[in-house]
Amino acid sequence: MRTLLLLALFSVSAAAAEFAPNHVFVARSSSGAVEHDKNMNYYATRSSSGAGAVAFGPNGHLYVSCGVAGVEEVDANGIPVQYFLDSSLNYAAGLAFGPHGNLLVADFNNDYVVEFDESGNYVRVIGSGSSLDGAFGIAVGANGHILVSSENNNRIVEFDALGNEVRTFGSGYLAQPEAIAFGPLGYLYVGGVGNSRLSQIDPEDGTEANWIAAPNPRGIVAAPDGTLLVTDRDNGTVVTFAVDSWGGLTQEGFQFLSGTGTTGGIAISPFRLKVALNGTCESDFVSYSFKEKATLSVFPGAGIVLLDPKNLGLLGLPFVGHGSDAYCTGSPKRRLFQGFEVHGAPTRQGASSMFLKVYGKCDGVGFFVVSDAKGNFSRMWPDCVVQASISTIKKLN
Question: At residue 357, does pLDDT exceed 60?
Fold first, then answer.
């Protein structure tokens, strides 16, 4: 049975303004991160020019890779918050949030991944001396493994949470892989610009389960209606692909976007809720009840849930969960998320799980609209166990 995979996050305070949920953000080399509404109409430009990839953090901010300029963090007002740049980083390409709760940046020229904490401080390099050659895109799994597309030698390189190389796969069917993302049915989707091909990969054994022609695929995201949105690097468009219940791929059409320049990464803004955690903390030395607030970011369609507790001293690292394949087909009233994670930080090892029901409905164009969430959460460290119920206080956007 395939396991849906997930991304990770880090914790910072929430901004006053919020990006509208279900908006589509496309990186453009000439104009920056361009925001579109859910109908793909131009809405705003949110970053400096030279954008290569885009990703959202649990604080609601947009992160934009800008090549030699590093990574720009932008709030919902389009104002730069900070820049992630270190002497170890030569050329920022793909972005993701890693198993330790930090920002991961694929360095194309240095053939490795650079990790930063929430304040932009250098943490470590992952993959130095490994099989990477032209690190481009990043995806993070539920087990904390980091998968990186290696463009120059036509493969995917997988690392564990500690940064050790686990395996490589994709040789023989990948050609200049750039885009990489997890999507419907738990598959890994990889775009190869060398053969204009979207590959659907079984993440358990690394084999290609299916593929379909896709022009110059540089960015991939799973949309809230269960389709895949894939950017066409050279033609300035987004191509839509449907995934049926058996994993079959069908091209549905094109979405022509405003602006000029090379089209890069793509992301969809999440729903964010303020939630209450009511629970207990048990260890050999202490036992007590607590009430805590947290921010819950829900990425409908992508199957990702980010739980960011305010009190990290109590709950440890933030939690990242994955969702079911229940998209907007059949107008479901709720989504079920069941996730787990394993932290690989040498000084903070442990495991977590979450059972969550996300309530909402589908709007007229097939986008899931979140209203509230209820569930429970547990975290097991080597010396303590935390358990809590989850309930919504209010929507943030």
Answer: yes
Backbone angles phi, psi at 382, to 5 degrees: -60, -25
d(CA 335, CA 374): 11
Tell me the C-alpha distance between 348 and 353, whole Å. 16
Identity of the residue numbered 170:
G
> Count of residues for the chain?
397
Q: Which of 190, 94, 199, 96 is nearest to 136 (CA)?
A: 94
- DSSP per-residue string spanning 345-397: -TTS-EEEEEEEEEEEEE-TTS-EEEEEEEEEEEEEETTEEEEEEEEEEEE--
Beta bridge mates, 12: none
The pLDDT tens digits of the residues spanning 186-212 come to 789 999 999 999 999 998 999 999 999
- Nearest alpha carbon to residue 99 among 377, 389, 380, 348: 348
The strands making up 263-268's β-sheet, listed across from edge to edge, are: 42-45, 32-36, 24-28, 263-268
Residue showing tokens 């994993």: 247
Query: Structural domains in the chain?
Result: 24-268 (2.130.10.10), 271-395 (2.40.160)
CA pair distance 381, 314, nearest whole angstrom: 11
Is residue 105 a contact partner of residue 92, using CB atoms and an 8 Å limit? Answer: yes
pTM of the model: 0.87
Q: What is the tens place of the pLDDT at every residue in 82-135?
A: 999 999 999 999 998 876 668 899 999 999 999 998 889 999 999 999 999 999
- Over the range 170-180, which residues count as b (16 or more CB within 10 Å of their CB) and which as e? beebbebbbbb
Both tokens assigned to 186: 């738990």
Closest CA to 78 of 103, 56, 100, 45: 45
Q: Return the exposure string of 40-71: e unless at least 16 CB atoms fall within 10 Å of the residue's CB, then b.
A: beebebbbbebbbbbbbbbbbbbbbbbbebbb
Which H helix or E strand runs over 242?
A: strand 237-243
pLDDT digits (tens, 9 = 90+) for 148-194: 999 999 999 999 878 899 999 999 999 999 999 988 777 899 999 99
